[in-house]
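User: I'm preparing a small set of examples for a lab meeting where we compare how different chains pack in three dimensions. I only have the primary sequence for this one, and I'd like the structure in token form so I can line it up with the others. Please keep the answer compact; I'll paste it straight into my notes.
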Amino acid sequence: MKEILLSGPCSITKGLQEWNYENGLILHKELVYVPKNDNLKRRVVQQFHDNITGHLGEWKTLKLITREYWWPGITEFIKEYIKGCATCQTTKICPPVKVPLKPNEVPNGVWETITMDFIMGLPTSQGYDSILTVIDRHSKAIILSPCNTTITVEQTSQLLMDNVWKRTGFPLTIISDYGPQFVAQVT
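Assistant: Understood. Below is the structure token output for the 187-residue chain.
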């Protein structure tokens, strides 16, 4: 077997124009070539995935590594490494399951179904900086109640009792965004 000793910057030719040798490193298309050594490859991926970037996903890790390094099968190697990363498997949130949207039913009568939400962050007027909006889905009638961004669930309940339900009665269905002013329990 014939050995080739390389010293100093030179270009490896014979159909391999994409390869170079510089400063003791073999380069492939200007990227550092990582030889067939799984431990070395694992150390490169570990450095970028575990230490520098803080457990980014496979595509972001691949993008970072391929700015500087290359080896055959790099994409698959990184994918398998991240699949086996204990930190990623125990802390990453799985992508949400998409549930088909179901349209709201059309109400039969007035004030049977209401929607409610807050308009917050308004300029202060007469001591209030927010508005509770309650809308009847059948008639599109609206009741507005001034309030503050610091409103609690108890205060929201009191606003609904005083300004809405005394006028309209209790609805059959309430639609909201599950904000903290709506979802806490009142005893």
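A couple of notes for your slides: The chain has two domains: 10-91, 113-183. The two ends are 86 Å apart (CA to CA).

User: Perfect, thanks.
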